[in-house]
Amino acid sequence: MADRSLLRRVILRSTPLGTVFALGKSRVLTCEEGRHLYSSTGCEKKLEPENEKTTISKKGNWYALPPFTPSVDGAALGKTIAHRQTEKKHKASDTTSTSTMTALKWVTRCCPELPRSLVQKLFRLRQVRRDSYNVEVQQRQLKRVAAKDLMNSGDRIVLPVSIQKVPSAKTDSTFSEEEMKFLHSMVLFKDPAVIVVNKPPGMPVQGGIGIKRSLDELAAKYLRFDDSESPRLVHRLDRDCSGILVMGRTQLSATTLHSIFREKTLEASEYDLDSKRRIVRKTYWALVIGSPRRSKGIISKPLGKVVVDNGKSDRITVVDDVQSSLAQYAVTEYEVIGSSCYGYSWLELSPLTGRKHQLRVHCAEVLGTPIVGDYKYGWQAHRNLKNPGPSALTWDHNEGLPEEGLDPFSLNLGNGSILDKQPRLHLHCREMVLPNISLALQRAKSITDLDLEDVKTIKFDAPLPSHMQKSWDALGS
């Protein structure tokens, strides 16, 4: 006999009001119980079984998950948005998918608090069942289901009641008002689908070896704004790069944005250089050493990764053989927007593709003008660079300094301009144009034809970080 105090782990996300199913019976949750069921950290509310007789087999009760219903296919929607200039109308059914949701994905989506390893073990031990409608016998049947089996509309997964209460994943319980204030000051825009921040230089975007604090971790802690889901990354910025970073506030919006950015790169490979047709536009500002021969142009040079230092590290470089398996198509537009007699130039860079270190390598190896502070690809240019010093430049010492108490992560935001002995990377995502994802998702849920023609774009602007602003002012730009 199963213990009455066992926790029913049912996380409902597809209905506004939760229901606990006992296969054959159901009851509507109270508001208090529903609040716990929607918590992303797991359900802490203990629910008593309704009736000991509600059993499916000799092993006892089962926990039934919500029935699977078709949802918007974020990848298909992103592709539709990216190509809306040539394909004006689409059926709403084109952006829904019932064939790509597996049983494993549905369980992990409904029960995010369950460790993935435990869910996979349940499938391996064949302890997961699916309640589905059998057309041949004209009735619902309960059968074993494999992890990779596809879900059909109305299918309901049931899990054994023997699952014990799993401790919540260890999280950092410390909360800092100063850190929260700093993270909130980074926010440029937010709506139900996306959140856009102005990433400071020196803050890593993702965690990894030797990284204690990263933006994705901090966003989950301070930028949820009472949402059940944490913001998800949809593109990257180098650790020392600053500027606009977009995150999806839901799994669906993140998948849609991923698809849009991917289509952006694919379109560029087809030489679609008409800026008016680009659904996504990024604009970076960079201070470089030297000046390009031409004031503006388009760089189309494939990039590839090579291993150096006896395999200890790697770097990106221009690949001459375009047929090489290492070559990745990369296109960058550039324009000189300012120059200085001290040997510096300000460039406006627009990447049409999204390759790793694309702008840094194109500036250093193709234009011959490495970005200031890029010691990986421009160390020789920095070695030969003569710093004119503060006395030779026009600079107000009171300008560009961060306010006291607004650097809780010790990023040293006031340092790193060309006035310092060792400048930091001068590369900043200044502007970005994206489609209105929130409106597109609303349209995608419509049962009528999906018309995206009037889904406008949104433009985001991020001010320069203090070290670049200092350099800008010092050069009299």
Describe this protein's structure.
- The structure is a single chain.
- This protein is an alpha+beta fold and 477 residues long.
- The protein is built from 11 helices and 22 strands.
- Strands 10, 11, 12, 13, 14, 15, 18, 19, 20 and 22 form a 10-stranded mixed β-sheet that branches. A 4-stranded antiparallel β-sheet has the order 3-9-7-8, with helices on one face.
- The termini are far apart.
Mean of residue pLDDT values? 77
Number of extended strands:
22
| Percent in strands | 15-25%
Shape: elongated
Supply the number of helical segments.
11
Biggest sheet character? 10 strands, mixed
- Gap from first CA to last CA: 78 Å
Unreliable runs: 1-59, 85-98, 397-404
* Share in helix: 10-25%
- Rg computed from alpha carbons, rounded to a whole number of angstroms: 27 Å
Structural class: alpha+beta
Short synopsis of the structure:
By secondary structure, this protein is α+β, with helices and mostly antiparallel strands. It is 21% helix and 23% strand.
Keywords:
477 residues, alpha+beta, 4-stranded antiparallel sheet, 10-stranded mixed sheet, 11 helices
Write the layout of secondary structure elements.
Blueprint: E1 19-21, E2 26-28, H1 31-37, E3 62-64, E4 71-72, H2 74-82, E5 89-90, E6 96-97, H3 103-110, H4 116-124, E7 129-134, E8 139-144, E9 156-160, H5 177-186, E10 187-190, E11 194-199, H6 215-222, E12 232-233, E13 242-248, H7 251-268, E14 281-289, E15 296-300, E16 303-308, E17 313-318, E18 331-339, E19 344-351, H8 358-366, H9 379-384, E20 427-435, H10 437-444, E21 450-451, E22 457-461, H11 466-474
Parallel strand pairs: 13-20
Antiparallel strand pairs: 1-2, 3-9, 4-6, 5-21, 7-8, 7-9, 10-11, 11-13, 12-13, 14-19, 14-20, 15-18, 16-17, 18-19, 20-22
Helix pairs in contact: 2-7
